[in-house]
Amino acid sequence: MAQPAVVTVPAARRRGHLRRDARAAVPADLLCAPTIILFLVFMVFPIIFVLYTSMLDWDGINSVFRAKWTGLENYRRLLHDATWWTAVQNTVLYAIFKLVFELPLALLIALVLNTNLKGRAFFRTAGFLPVITSIAVVSLAFMFFFSPLGGGFNVLMMKLGLIDQPVAWLGERKYAFWTVTGVAFWHDLGINMVFFLAALQTVPRDLYEAATIDGADGWNQFRSITIPSIRPITSVIIMLSLAGSLKVFDYFAVMTGGGPGFSTTTMVLYMFRYTSFGGGGLAGTQTIPQVGYGSTVAVGLGLIIFAAILLQQAIGQWQERR
Question: Is 138 among the domain residues?
Answer without folding.
Answer: yes
